[in-house]
Design goal:
Methylamine Dehydrogenase, Chain H, four-stranded antiparallel β-sheet
């Protein structure tokens, strides 16, 4: 079922956040606008973006729906309902298809990216979660007690990689064969050679646990892991797997992104902040800002083509759920 919703008012929390962002000198992120998500309640999970149409796809997990927002008009222009705890969303631009991973029934559902009409449903197992795409436009979906399924653009399963725990965030090399996977149940990072079928290697997160978000600077040879216990950002060397730096970060983080243009990192956390890190001339990273948001706003999406970071903000009191749009400065 498709429905259209109009954007609501911007709450007082938005005005407060503008003041907070403006107080940064210089501000690495500027809060530009919000996109209200009227009627969306509960948890909001991950997002995807269609550059051609400037639409943002938002997994409204608590509503069992995906909200489709036009970024230019800052309005919701469509909704996909009847889902089962959507967690990961991925827009495939060549085929104009939207893949949605559902946690409650373990399906990946494919929709026409323009009309939002359903095309196909693939049953993987339980807890279909994070979803990514490689340079060949294959779709990777983490699910179950330990697997990543590889689908072609039509949803046909090509192969599967086994893990020893449920996969959380993972990253795929564009110019190499490796895939890095956070496996918090085993407290490690699995390193998979996609050209081989053997057991994956693994790297340690030292004494930090609950490793959920991940980002990759492939050219710079750095992998970034955020752990929740304690709240730490780990910087790993992708040649050796060694942890070369540890920095404090925002609590309850669920997303981190690497901004290659500015050599920065953005980590969003449910504690109520975005932590921003800058690579220095030495190659080390340092925190340059911690921008206050609201409690529970832990998922985000950075779109390099727009220089924009989208932050998912849950409904709070009379303030509707919304996407806060930050410009990278």
């Amino acid at each position: 079922m498709l429905a259209k919703r109009s954007a609501g008012r911007v709450g007082a929390a938005f005005a407060f956040a503008i003041c907070v962002a403006a107080a940064q000198s210089p501000a690495p992120l500027r809060l530009e606008k919000t996109i209200a998500l009227p009627g969306v309640a509960g948890r909001i999970d991950h997002m995807s973006f269609d550059t051609a149409t400037q639409r943002l796809f938002v997994a409204a997990l608590g509503n069992n729906a995906v909200e489709v927002a036009d970024v230019r008009s800052a309005k919701v222009v469509g909704t996909i309902t009847g889902l089962a705890e959507p967690q990961g969303v991925l827009y495939q631009p060549e085929k104009k298809r939207l893949f949605v991973a559902n946690g409650a029934d373990g399906t990946v559902r494919i929709f026409d990216g323009l009309t939002l009409e359903p095309l196909r449903s693939i049953a993987l197992g339980d807890d279909a979660d994070n979803i990514r795409m490689d340079g060949a436009r294959r779709v990777y979906v983490g699910y179950g007690s330990g697997a990543i399924a590889v689908l072609d653009g039509d949803g046909n399963e090509e192969r599967e990689f086994k893990l020893d725990g449920h996969p959380e965030s993972f990253q795929i090399e564009d110019h190499g064969q490796r895939m890095y996977v956070n496996v918090p149940q085993s407290g490690k990072i699995s390193v998979i050679d996609r050209g081989k079928s053997g057991a994956p290697g693994s790297w340690s997160t030292d004494d930090a646990t609950a490793n959920f978000p991940m980002a990759l600077d492939e050219g710079g040879g750095r992998l970034f892991i955020v752990c929740r216990r304690p709240a730490l950002l780990l910087v790993l060397d992708t040649k050796s797997g060694a942890v070369v730096q540890k920095l404090s970060t925002v609590g309850d983080s669920d997303d981190i992104f690497y901004d290659g243009k500015r050599r920065r990192l953005y980590a969003s956390g449910g504690e109520g902040a975005i932590a921003v890190y800058q690579r220095q001339a030495s190659g080390d990273y340092s925190e340059i800002a911690r921008i206050e948001t609201v409690k529970g706003a832990r998922t985000s999406l950075f779109v390099p083509a727009l220089d924009r970071l989208f932050l998912a903000v849950r409904q709070e009191g009379q303030n509707p759920a919304a996407i806060w749009v930050y410009e990278a400065m």
